[in-house]
Description:
The protein is mainly alpha-helical. Among the domains are: 123 residues, Up-down Bundle (Four Helix Bundle (Hemerythrin (Met), subunit A)); 217 residues, Neurolysin, domain 3 (Orthogonal Bundle). The chain is 62% helix and 3% strand. The chain has 24 helices and six strands. Helix 6 runs antiparallel to helix 9, helix 14 packs across helix 15 and helix 14 packs across helix 21. The protein is globular. The relative contact order is 0.11. The model has no long low-confidence stretch (mean pLDDT 96). Aspartic acid binds next to loops.
Amino acid sequence: MNVTLTDRIRQAMALAATLITMNTLAADVSWQGRADQYLALVNEGYQALYRVESEAQWAAATDVSPVNDAAAETAGKARAAFMGNPGMIREARALLEHRGQLSPLSVRQLERVLLIAAEGPMTNPELDNARIKAETQQASTMNSFTFQLRGQTITPNEIDGLLNTSTNLAERRAVWEASKQSGPALKPGLVKLQGLRNAVARELGFADYFALQVASYGMTTAEMLKMQQEFMRELRPLYLQLHTWVKYELAKKYGQPVPQRIPAHWLNNRWSQNWVGIVSAASLDDRFKGRSPEWIVKTAEQFFTGIGMDPLPDTFWTRSDLYPVKPGETRKKNTHASCWHVDLGRDIRSLMSVEANTQWFETTHHELGHGYYFMAYTRPEVPPLLRIGANPAFHEGMGELISLACGQVPYLKTVGVLPADYQADEIAFLLNDALANTVPFIFWSSGTMTHWEADLYASQLDPAQWNARWWSYVRDFQGVEPPSERSEEFCDAATKTHINDNPAYYYSYAIATVLKFQFHDYLARKVLKQPLQSCNYAGQREAGAFLRRLMAKGGTEDWRQVLRETTGEDLSTRAMMEYFKPLMEWLRKQNAGRPIGWE
Ligand code: ASP
Ligand code: ZN
């Protein structure tokens, strides 16, 4: 059945592409006219099949089962049969050879067609089918994985909960080790995908899968790595101060000697990516007690309606999957938060497991940032092919900006998380912002994740070296070490969601983190005229108008141009460094006399 469907789409597409070519040649249509006809067809088909595939993937991610996996696989093949059709690729290439005679909007769409085609080129259907099968299998293994602690099942939310609260190092270590159990189960699939993803990317002439992904920024792998290294070079002095302060603090907390590098199980995050829960004077954990998860999601929506945006579509509330699976239900679902533009139209959904705590408060604001980005560019002027962020980091950056905004003390007072007369310890909040959301995250995202995935794809890193390479990056970039040697029987990289289902993408989060400070800096200074570190977006319609203008463009303009137009600046850590300037001074005093760093 699925072979027939895919074959039919493939044949229909080849026919359609040939007809367009013949038609336009015969009628002596201009290149622009030919592009218009072609793009009208592609946009229609793309949107229709995107929807079919999203629906199938949504079912597979919210209810893992062999039936749903099979349907997702079929839908993936159907979309590839259309978008990766050789006839379609040929026509896009032919048109791009005359780009000088085409509108910039057509050129952008055609380039996008080729990038999408490169993800599933039907120049080699067997290869692509093998990849889609392996992708679906990997997602299923990950989403249905059950973690065990001392013989009992433990959910990811429970793992995070224990790491956030336990002060017993032996228990922390056991929980941390439990969180790495999925690695060995995921390694064989990832070995397969390493080869398949690279082979797919090579079909249309990309050097490897990493090169294909960074092409959506108009960059090469070398340029992307250089950009990430530059972020780390600029932020290193601040990171070393934070790292030093934290290891002294944690050594005191656990009654241990001060280590050189921080043991991973001392930190509350499974990957040491966000150093949450260290600054007790900025802790909000108690503030969410007695609140409902529903309140969290509604409050996040109000952030947006308050700045002048429309409410979420009704179907968001009826179709999303927002809360943890109820006790007694046997269904397994993906536990990592995401937001979906199911039909590239008004069907917007979020998949989360919201509980009433700080982490989900921020995450929910982040996810709705994606949702409002979808809504802003869903308009007739933006063709479905370009209903994307200016680049992937802009999308993440919008989410990140909103989670920065929702952590500002005056905003927390407005929504009642903090009482109106709350006297905030300003340095504590700034320190927490740096640790929990920003600076260690850069060394994890620009450093460990990006470099390891570049090795995986661009250098075809031998699976016998995966774990050693992973931990050498964690040690060198993050200054963190495992509680004990992690041999190659483990595959700790694969315990991170994105390594499996969002490959060669993670630098986008680093860029997003840099961008969020640029957007915030502009908004606080120029639009809201409020202090950078204590800025309330609530009810500020001008802030909403600024964000809407930015988001409504979707992918219709080059991201560098959008950034310059909206903030007057190029991509830069300047705004981030300025934001944390008062903190740097404070840290230097606190760390006076301590050896800084781990070398
Ligand atoms: N915050 C990012 C996300 O939305 C990165 C992460 O969770 O690791 O996926
Ligand atoms: Zn996101």
